[in-house]
Specification:
Elements: E1 24-27, H1 46-57, E2 65-66, H2 74-77, H3 83-91, H4 94-97, H5 102-109, H6 132-151, E3 157-160, H7 181-189, E4 196-200, H8 207-212, E5 219-226, E6 251-256, H9 262-280, E7 284-288, H10 306-317, E8 323-326, H11 333-348, H12 388-403, H13 407-411, H14 425-428, H15 442-451, H16 461-466, H17 475-482
Family: Belongs to the histone deacetylase family. HD Type 1 subfamily.
Subcellular location: Nucleus
Catalytic activity: N(6)-acetyl-L-lysyl-[histone] + H2O = L-lysyl-[histone] + acetate
């Protein structure tokens, strides 16, 4: 087997920047785990629960301060979104959206459609489903809480893997995104920091966030994404630098072609981001960690490994600025959970083993041989359409655009714009002494009983499958011997 991104494009396991521990806070809302976009839809919010359980299995929850679960309010969403759109989201049900009445027409005008028939979710980006409004409040509340933790100065890194919905616009849904929690979080950060940098490593262009701040010189958006061939959302060319005015050149786009691997990606990412930091001088950073840029994704066509993806997090972390980590895309859910668990470890500054611990969702990782850093055979990778010349050309074009963003322009912020919102830190975090134990999900409970709790002399099927593997021998190979 060749590592994803083969041909020598695999990076070593990322260090944790300067190896300094950070004060990390973490948001997880179990109410998101049962959200269902519909049969056949590639967006599966349950991936966040898988990531959370993997983080717990590695023993990392004790390394972070837990943010209190607090869904956003309609008023908080209205800080960016159109009130008419929010009213529609709040009242919309699957029964409303299917007909030719006024509500269905309004929903379709806002990018939301009914799912018709079994498996109908495959053809609809933004379906209406049960608990849609509740879902939007929950993931947005997590990003706002994380931003407030950074603004209060009580955390260095804040994590919400359920957030990162970068396509939603002010008045409508797009690209599986309904409410743009990233914009809401950045607006919250602007109440406490003069300049905020947004970095997007999702496979898709971060168009919704870029559009929201195109007139501002207090926010810079930098997006690394697959581009060309009609790939959604068909925006984010290197020449796209924003509209003329104070915010021009505060949008930086780094488009890449199909099949880029770790080494080439970081020939772009690290020098460009180092120069962005030097020129824009942000006071806080938001990093959207969409995992659909990983090799083997069901939608993305890049060849990044989990190590290469995490290297982006490690590099940004090394600048020692308040850092908000958000989720985003990612449609091969075991790969997504592996990615975000590993990046939680990077945020903490903790090395974790490659062997996935036994836990309630262990079976989901069978096809990656129970390894955090999965491997793909070369035949399953996308052919690399990037060349040394194309990579150099993109980097030079990005640097040229950065040269037009003068520090004086970025620094000409009217500081009186800062709103200095007060933050009640006592409401942000759980008190470890009062925090209730999370209720185990039915799926995790079933797996635990099947694999971890044999009765009497009965041998656990989990033990039979996983134990007694000789050094250097995979569990899948051992299983073949047992047959």
């Amino acid at each position: 087997m060749a590592m994803a991104g083969g041909g020598g494009n695999s990076l070593p396991s990322p260090s944790c920047g300067d190896d300094k521990k950070r004060r990390v806070c973490y948001y997880y809302d179990p109410g998101i785990s049962t959200v269902d976009y519909g049969e056949g839809h590639v967006m599966v919010p349950h991936r966040v629960t898988m990531a959370h359980n993997l983080v717990a299995a590695y023993g990392m929850l004790g390394d972070m301060r837990r943010l209190r679960t607090a869904p956003a309010t309609a008023a908080e969403l209205a800080d960016f979104h159109d009130e008419g759109y929010l009213a529609l989201l709040q009242d919309l049900t699957p029964d409303d959206c299917g007909g030719d009445d006024g509500i269905g027409d309004m929903a379709r005008a806002r990018g939301i459609y009914a799912v018709e028939g079994k498996g109908g979710g495959r053809g609809v980006d933004n379906p209406v489903f049960d608990r849609l409004w509740d879902y939007c409040l929950r993931y947005s509340g997590g990003s706002l809480a994380a931003a407030r933790a950074l603004g209060s100065g009580t955390a260095d890194v804040a994590i919400n893997w359920s957030g990162g919905m970068h396509h939603a616009c002010r008045g409508g849904a797009r690209g599986f995104c309904y409410v743009n929690d990233i914009v809401l979080a950045i607006r919250e950060l602007l109440a406490h920091f003069r300049r905020v940098l947004y970095v997007d490593i999702d496979v898709h262009h971060g168009d919704g966030v870029e559009a929201a701040f195109e007139a501002s010189n207090r926010v810079m958006t930098v997006s690394f994404h697959q581009h060309g061939g009609g790939f959604f959302p068909c925006s984010g060319a290197v020449a796209d630098v924003g509209k003329k005015g104070p915010g021009q050149y505060c949008a930086l786009n780094v488009p890449v072609s199909v099949g880029i691997g770790d080494e080439e990606y970081h020939r772009l990412f690290e020098p460009i981001m180092a120069r962005v930091m030097e020129v824009f001088q942000p006071e806080a950073v938001v990093l959207q960690c969409g995992a659909d840029s990983l090799a083997g994704d069901r939608l993305g066509e890049l060849n990044l490994t989990t190590r290469g993806h995490a290297q982006c997090v490690s590099f940004i972390r090394s600048f020692n600025l308040p850092l908000l980590l958000l989720g985003g895309g990612g449609y091969t859910i075991n790969h997504v959970a592996s990615c975000w668990c590993n990046e939680t470890a990077v945020a903490i500054g903790k090395e974790i083993p490659n062997d996935i611990p036994k836990h309630g969702f262990d079976v989901f990782y069978k096809n990656q041989e129970y390894k955090l850093h999965y491997k793909l055979e070369t035949k399953h990778l996308h052919r690399n359409r990037n060349t040394a010349n194309s990579i150099d050309g993109i980097r030079m074009a990005a640097m040229e655009n950065l040269s037009k963003l003068k520090l004086e322009a970025a620094a000409s912020v009217q500081f009186e714009e800062r709103r200095h919102r007060s933050i009640d830190v006592g409401d942000l975090y759980y008190d470890p002494r009062e925090q209730e134990e999370e209720e185990e999900s039915p799926t995790a409970r079933l797996h635990r009983k099947l694999y971890f709790e044999p009765t009497g002399d009965q041998e656990s099927p989990y033990t039979k499958h996983r134990c007694n593997v000789q050094p250097g021998e995979s569990s899948s190979r051992k299983q073949r011997k047992l047959k």
